[in-house]
Amino acid sequence: MNTDTHQGTDPSESSLGSKPSGVTRARLRQEVTDSTDWGVVRAVLDVGIIVLCVALALVPMLPAYDSPWALGAIIAGALSGVAPVVIGVRLRWPFVLTLVVVFFTYVVVGGALAFRSELVAGFVPSGRSISAMLSGLVTSWMEALTLEPPLGASHGVLILPFLMALLGAVAVTFLVLRRRSWPTTLVAVCVPFVLFAAAILWGTAQSVIPRGLGILLALILVVWASWRMNTWRPSRALSLGGLLATALAGALVLTPLVQSDHQRTVLRAVVVPPFDLEDQISPLSTYRQFIKDYSETPLLTVSGLPQGTPVRLATMDQFDGVVWDVSSDGNRAGSGSFRRIGDEVPQSRTGQKYSVSLQVGDLRGVWTPTIGYLTSVVFDDAWLGADFRLNDATGAGVMPGGLSPDLRYTLTGVIPDQPTDEELGQAGVGSIDVAPATQIPEIVADRASAISREGATVPLVVRKFEEYLANGGYFSHGEQVDGFPSLSGHGTSRIADLFAEDQMIGDAEQYASAMALMARSQGIPSRVVMGFLPEPDQGGDVTFTGADMTAWTEVFYDDFGWVSYFPTPDESRTPSKSQETAKPSPQPESIQDPPDPQPSVSPPAVDTEETNVAADDEQSGTPIDWARVLKVSLAVGIPVFVLLLGPLLVVAAKARRRNSRRSAEGREQVLGGWQEFVDAAHDLGIRPPAELTRRETARFIEAGNPEAHVLPLADGADVAQFGYDELEPTHGADYWSKVDRAIVQIGARTSRWRKLRAKLSLGTFPLTLRRKRASS
Hints:
Elements: H1 22-34, H2 37-57, H3 62-65, H4 68-90, H5 95-114, H6 127-146, E1 147-148, H7 159-176, H8 182-201, H9 210-228, H10 236-258, H11 287-293, E2 298-305, E3 311-316, E4 318-319, E5 324-325, E6 340-341, E7 352-360, E8 367-368, E9 373-379, E10 389-390, E11 397-398, E12 408-415, H12 421-424, H13 442-452, H14 458-472, E13 473-475, H15 492-500, E14 504-506, H16 508-521, E15 526-532, E16 540-545, E17 549-557, E18 561-565, H17 608-620, H18 626-662, H19 667-683, H20 694-704, H21 711-722, H22 731-746, H23 752-760, H24 764-775
Parallel strand pairs: 1-6, 13-14
Antiparallel strand pairs: 2-7, 2-16, 3-15, 4-5, 7-12, 8-11, 9-12, 10-11, 15-17, 17-18
């Protein structure tokens, strides 16, 4: 028999006679396969593939942890979510019982993974770890954002990736083990994409091929969903591959043209750390208390201290006229932004590396002694590490719960080298966003302006400020010596009095504040630091008391960062031991004016409105960036054109094939009409077995579409092929009219979406090629 009487093949259907519709046949095949061992195999494949996608979706989180334990947490979470659900379905557990087992798995397995140091007998979670896992259900989401990457693998930071993998695996496993349907399949497909978006938001700006990973995830899920619902056809691989190649080209090639200088947006870049110090008093205000009440009390013991290195207690960069304090503006470069840290702290600064051990004595409060800039902090009691917070911009640390007696910890880090005036050379005012210093006494600003004329460069001006205070002032902790009082405090009034008296008398609290205000008045970034200062030749094992507490000033320079200055006079320089002479007063008129220091960091407020108007006028006159417009147009237009090109080519190819068949003459025109009808039915999902005759094919199609008149079309094609009479000239056109009506009739019950898919389907082109090969 001529092969033109046979149609496209579907191996799963070989019976003759009446057939149900395409949807009904798919459900029938599903019920048949699910009732056999193949149903079990398909269920295993369903769960395995979708859970693999859950794990892949969480990969963008890995750079935030920079630890192989994070990948282990994702895998363990996925397996911990799958196992209870699969067992529950197999044993027909109640839904609530399954959730209880999932929760128990989360606490036990997650606790053993996230708190490895707290395990009892090496494998049993402790009471503290169980409590932390319970609270981690709520707190882990925010804590992961308030930690500075890399988070490492300690202090419970692995709770979040474990929890996200577990919840995702539980959700998709429940969905895929339910009865197969498009709604449950689509919801299951959405779960990995939701996790993928969350992993990016909770990750870092560092890229882990997110575009390629997203495309791979989409490819796996689209193929899986089609295979799961018995709608996958190998012929679709070419079109799907073209679509994905286009998306990949747009993502990897065109997107960087538009966003070459932009980082990914992640939540940790905008979330303000939850801990603030507004309820704490200014550390500098407690300076005299250390001197008077703890002058001989051991407060801190340091082992391995580099010689002459100061120990930082607190750094303050905001002055409100009353006290120096940590800034409260939420600026990450400020002194008030403290975050939890992971196992390691990324450090770009260079200098002397160190590793020291510290033991807290009678030191109390939240301020935790640190040295230089840290790369790691390890507490003897590992549980306390979760309470430590670090300000990476200042190097200061805090324990929100307060320091405890005998607290022991080890610091590693870098102590930046302190440049000399010669090394600073022509260094300019550093560009850094510092908190404001308001209500600077006028006498301080005037004195600083006069002194600044003595320095040819910014570093020399700052050194003049230090020398003016250290060499021209006198030291006193408050004792009245020979009638010279020294009041505590460092606000506007106290510093104004310091400069107004015949002799400057004070201690580190006043002098550090005074120098910082002098620098700020000239637009030079400065801040005040409070801490312990050993003798220049003192190092190794050192025990600090309250008498060792001091304060100093730090100034920021371009290319050098923060440089320390010590403006406090020597303790031996007291009013009683020095001749009462007039305080040195700069004489600017007798000194040649050097170049003025660089402009202030905070520009003056005068003419602000006029400046903004000018800026607006300038902006309004800015020409259009046509190069960028072209890039954006190409980035948007090329992917859209390529995406539309494929469907347009398919439609054009089908139209050309139809016209070729319809323009034929005689018998070929009628046979071409029959092939057009069969191809249209195939694209709509009606696929008779290839071994059927035309009349059998017609009955097969009419069984699911009784309103369609297909049998006359089959008879007409048979007559055209096997008849001996010549066909009338109008016979072919009449036959094609019947073909068009039949195509409309068999498509009446299908949805618009199915009709659109039929128009873009490539499935009939292989059938056409097979027919041509068979006929030749």
